[in-house]
């Protein structure tokens, strides 16, 4: 085979094999038999009409608007949890290929192959490849933008910079924190000591990205209450993220950390050139560090928000492995050079490549229990399908049901069949029609009046709320808890999927109050529950 054809085949193999491995890992156990709360939001919002989604974005989740529109298109094919997760699986496979392409372009094909395979076997990658959320797509967009960034720096064409800006802007509209990638690329340019022409071209592209994101920032600032539950990240948070990037198991983490440090040695190359380490290290470190520092003033950090930074870690590990291979390979080189048939010398190269692939396979096997456990619904914060099965078994037609907090209604919106004959005590207007995630509930006074008319009520709730480990802020939620505590007794309870389904029965002697509802006038008929 001619040398040019062999080189092209090597590059295609280096990019294609990691994509296929990632696809296999992502498809393995994709049907977990249930969705957790965040996936359920994607599912129930994606099934709304486009005008209803647009109405929702004015109230909450503007940062996920583009993703919801994509999910809406996907779910028209088939409304199911497997279909919901398929875009994330495909995006993870694309990201593995893009990581390999970066390694191939900045080093050599075997470095790209190793980096792509390492990305595919990291448990954190597999976790978000099976999430019906936007984070795997953001990782694909950010890695693609980084590859375009490298090409633009190397070739400097206007079209390359335009493509870079367009892809990064689209990625930022999938999640606005992808804009931190600009900080990583700025550090790469500084390390590369590029000329003024490249800096100006990058500045124009970065400015275009920033301007395109202004509407998103203005809207999302008004929705900041959605992340009020976040806490300031600590040193423990940073260590946990590093372990997630390199592999959480002890042996794999130690080896990968050592190789990554070794791979970071080539941080600065010749003037005007960017190196693999000069791209990969800022990509891995800068976005998480910037977000963690900003979160000291206003907590915004969650590891999934910077999932895209994971793309740089396998490149550093693969670069370190290449340095080790270079040192180990020298003794192999001398005896081969002494042979008459020097043409056989390159045959030792695939052996080194295969040794690296075997090492990655061993790392995969070592972490296989973690990957297998992640395919279980129990590894997520909750399992709404399990909750819906309890409701279908316990509730009789016409039973009253109450949600504590209101976000617990998510299970009824996602699995409506189990709740079809139940009466929602608090609901005033449905989620889709009201442009909210969980619907509009009655105010505190009307809520108390509605509950006074009940002899028994099923409560679908967060167990921590029922146990008093946290208190709701909304007056309606406090009114629900007050009436339940004063007039009702917990009769039976079933816990499944991280939630409680509890039956409350009115206490003997606590007669129902026949007072009129707050909005009713004398002589007017009572509104239905």
Describe this structure in words.
It contains 24 helices and 7 strands. It has helices at 3-27, 37-46, 50-57, 65-75, 81-106, 109-121, 123-129, 135-155, 158-174, 181-192, 196-212, 214-221, 235-246, 250-263, 276-295, 312-338, 348-366, 368-374, 384-394, 410-414, 431-434, 444-452, 463-466, 475-487; strands at 400-404, 423-424, 427-429, 440-441, 456-461, 488-496, 499-506. α2 (37-46) packs across α4 (65-75), α5 packs antiparallel against α6 and α10 crosses α15. It is elongated. The model is unreliable at 339-348 and 520-529 (pLDDT under 50).
Estimate percent helicity: 55-70%
Q: In this structure, how is the largest beta sheet organized? A: 5 strands, mixed
Strand content: 5-15%
Distance between the termini: 78 Å
Assembly state of the chains shown:
single chain
Q: Output the strand order for the largest sheet.
A: 2-1-5-7-6
SSE class: alpha/beta
Count, helices: 24
Shape: elongated
Number of strands: 7
Question: Short summary of the structure?
Answer:
With 529 residues, the chain is α/β, with parallel strands linked by helices. Helices cover 60% and strands 7% of the residues. The model is unreliable at 339-348 and 520-529 (pLDDT under 50).
Walk me through the topology.
Layout: H1 3-27, H2 37-46, H3 50-57, H4 65-75, H5 81-106, H6 109-121, H7 123-129, H8 135-155, H9 158-174, H10 181-192, H11 196-212, H12 214-221, H13 235-246, H14 250-263, H15 276-295, H16 312-338, H17 348-366, H18 368-374, H19 384-394, E1 400-404, H20 410-414, E2 423-424, E3 427-429, H21 431-434, E4 440-441, H22 444-452, E5 456-461, H23 463-466, H24 475-487, E6 488-496, E7 499-506
Parallel strand pairs: 1-2, 1-5
Antiparallel strand pairs: 3-4, 5-7, 6-7
Helix pairs in contact: 1-5, 1-6, 2-4, 3-4, 5-6, 5-7, 5-8, 5-16, 6-16, 6-17, 8-9, 9-11, 10-15, 14-16, 15-16, 22-24
